[in-house]
Structure formats: C-alpha cells, structure tokens
Design goal:
Helix content is about 60%, strand content about 0%. By secondary structure, it is mainly α. The protein has 2 domains: about 100 residues, no CATH class; about 140 residues, no CATH class. The chain is globular and about 50 Å long.
Length: about 260
C-alpha cells in the first residue's frame, strides 16, 4: 500500500488495517491517531505530499501548488494562515476567486491577533473538558450548561481557534479526522452538505449546524465523535436534528460573532 492508501485504510471499517478512532479512558490518543502520527514521523514528506495531491486535484496552477501546501501545513489554531494569505497576494486572489473562499478583512487582522492572545490565556486557565452524557441530562440541565460561563468562554475560544471565523473544507476534514471520524464518514458528511458547502468556507452558523445535523442523520452520534472538543455547545447542537436548544445555540454563536466585530 502507498502511504496515502494506508492513511485512509486506518479510517475505513472495510479495511483490514482499520483502527479505532475512540480514545480509551486515560489515553490522550486513539489507536488510529497513534498510527497516523507514526506514519507521519516515519515519512517526513508524506503530509506535504498529501496536500500537494489535493492541490493538483483541485486544478491549481503549478506556480501556486507550493503556496497551497505551505498554507495547509500551517496550524489551524491562531492566525498563521490568515497572515500567510496576506503576505502572498497572488495565492490569496486565487484562493478567493477560484477556490471559492470568503474574503478576509486584513485591515483588522493585527487587532484580532492581539485580542485572540487574551482569549487563549483565558482558555488555558479553564479545567479540562469532560464529555457530556447527553442522554442522561434533562432539558433544564442542558440549558444550564449552555448558558454557563464555560460555554461562553468556549464560543470566544472558537473564534480565536479558527482565526476569527469558521473552518473551510480542508480544516473540517482534518478536525473530524483528529476527533475520530473515519475517512468514509467524513466523505459521506461532506457529500450530504452538497451545494451549501462545496469547497467554500462555512460562512454562518446555519451551515455549521448543517454539518452537525448531517452527522447525526448518518448515525454518527456527535457526542461520541466531537466530545473531545472543549465545548458543551457542539455536543448540544448534535443531540438530535431540530433539538429545541438549537435556537439558543444559534443566538449564542451569532452574538459572539457580533461581539468580535464590535471589538474590531
């Protein structure tokens, strides 16, 4: 098998090389995470190659392939990716016009970086997150969790984590894989999103909720997959499609976005 085939095989239940994406109690990584991490360690150029293949699949011109690889090798956390786009205007223009991503407000970037550092400091002071057994909680208990201080801190933290916005398709793939979704599950999810996603940035909370709801429809109980996010709200959103708390989550998320804009 090629390295890329082996990477995908670890996440495919039809493969003899399939490994569980569930972390055992007391473990910080699942068997699949450890195997993929070792694959990257043993093959230093593999991650670069994965993104290079993706660039050619998307039809990028040769002159911008290196930029694409460099961009996706940057961490999701923080603003490194936005800074890279600002410093590479030709790639940024293609990234927006041909790959369909949203334009970035570079004028406010320095201010958002400064604000994000403060959020990160607050997040580091929070206790480690615990998975929520949603089926054992009453609606009132769920509402109390959603309205509590940790939930509000989480919303602000997500704005910092994703550079002031929502992750694009490549980020969603990496995040879901890191939190236990198989390659097949990720592809199925993205296919269900269809024209509302299609390689573009997820631009609003409705599209983010669509991701979560479609995961639920496919039987991927969101609490099992995403409970390791530092986020009661994400687990709450995924309880069931159309859950009554969904409106509260929308409101909380939108208010956080507005607060961020006012800070700018």
């Amino acid at each position: 098998r090629t390295q890329l085939e082996l990477w995908d095989a670890y996440g495919s239940k039809k493969s003899p090389e399939y490994l569980s994406g569930v972390r055992a109690p007391g473990e910080d990584k699942s068997p699949r995470e450890r195997a993929r991490e070792k694959l990257l360690e043993d093959n230093p150029g593999f991650e670069d190659a994965r993104h290079r293949i993706s660039a050619y699949d998307k039809g990028l011109p040769d002159s911008l392939v290196d930029n694409y690889v460099e961009y996706y090798l940057l961490p999701i956390l923080g603003y490194d990716r936005e800074v890279y786009l600002r410093d590479h205007p030709e790639f940024y223009e293609y990234w927006v016009e041909e790959l369909g991503h949203s334009e970035i407000d570079f004028d406010s970037l320095d201010r958002r970086i400064a604000a994000g550092k403060g959020v990160r400091e607050r997040l580091e002071e929070l206790p480690p997150p615990k998975p929520i057994p949603m089926h054992l909680l009453s609606t009132d208990e769920l509402i109390n969790i959603l309205q509590g201080e940790p939930a509000r801190d989480w919303w602000e933290g997500m704005m910092w984590k994703f550079g002031g916005g929502i992750p694009d398709e490549e980020d969603v793939r990496r995040i879901l894989a890191a939190y236990g979704a198989t390659a097949g599950e990720i592809e199925k999810l993205l296919a269900l999103i269809g024209s509302t996603f299609e390689g573009r940035s997820i631009e609003n909370v409705d599209q983010l909720v669509a991701l979560v709801q479609n995961l639920s429809r496919e039987g991927l109980y969101i609490a099992d997959i995403l409970s390791r996010f530092p986020s009661p709200p994400v687990s709450l959103v995924g309880k069931t499609p159309g859950h009554p708390l969904l409106a509260a989550v929308h409101k909380e998320f939108e208010e956080t976005l507005l607060r961020g804009k006012r800070l700018e």
